[in-house]
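> example.struct
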């Protein structure tokens, strides 16, 4: 706390002023605080555990939890093999996308992706406490479907926002080239534009950051005594 500042005039600096003056945020970080430090320390400890599992892999029983974790860690750190495989590990997903020809096909694809890969694409689903009654767990749907941080990135027209969208298009084109979607440069540009247009249309339906956590808006849901999900 900075007691030289009146809380009535600037409560933020009153509460955080000394910390802001004394704390150096590392250049590698976008934010900094106690939880960031705890997380970084936790990551170091987890890495040490994984490195030890890797070294002792041959001593584990085949099919054991230790062996599975070690194999997963080794596979994830094998950058050379990952680069050599390219997009082959997701080829089956790309093939499924190619078979989509109508709305029904899209729905079945989304269900399959969520059920088998936990990838929602257009929404996330989870079960958690009701904000108004923590004794009750309810089904929650969370808006996703855009890759920029939040909806306003698609609509702001200031120079910084425009530059971000331009750089995002460059990134999309690079991804399209990596998956060898097409050898036609003009076609890649058109597909990238279509992707950004689609995300912009999805962003229209997203709540603004200001309204995204308002319980009164989140509570506008239909109550049902029965819920059945099928695939």
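> example.seq
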């Amino acid at each position: 706390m900075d007691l030289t500042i009146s809380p009535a005039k600037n409560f933020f600096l009153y509460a955080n002023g000394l910390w802001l003056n004394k704390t150096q945020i590392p250049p590698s970080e976008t934010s900094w605080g106690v939880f960031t430090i705890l997380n970084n320390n936790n990551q170091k400890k987890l890495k040490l555990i994984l490195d030890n599992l890797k070294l002792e892999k041959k001593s584990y029983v085949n099919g054991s939890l230790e062996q599975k974790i070690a194999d997963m860690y080794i596979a994830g750190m094998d950058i050379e093999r990952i680069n050599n495989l390219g997009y082959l590990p997701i080829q089956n997903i790309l093939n499924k996308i190619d078979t989509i020809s109508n709305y029904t096909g899209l729905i079945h694809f989304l269900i399959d992706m969520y059920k088998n890969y936990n990838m929602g694409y257009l929404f996330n689903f989870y079960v958690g406490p009701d904000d108004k009654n923590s004794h009750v767990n309810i089904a929650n749907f969370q808006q996703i479907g855009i890759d920029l941080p939040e909806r306003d990135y698609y609509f702001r027209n200031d120079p910084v926002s425009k530059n971000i969208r331009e750089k995002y298009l460059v990134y999309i084109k690079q991804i399209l080239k990596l998956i060898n979607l097409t050898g036609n440069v003009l076609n890649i540009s058109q597909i990238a534009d279509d992707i950004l247009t689609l995300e912009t249309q999805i962003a229209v339906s997203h709540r603004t950051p200001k309204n995204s956590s308002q319980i009164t808006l989140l509570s506008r849901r239909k109550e049902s005594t029965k819920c059945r999900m099928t695939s």
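> remarks
The CA atoms of residues 169 and 203 lie 16 Å apart.
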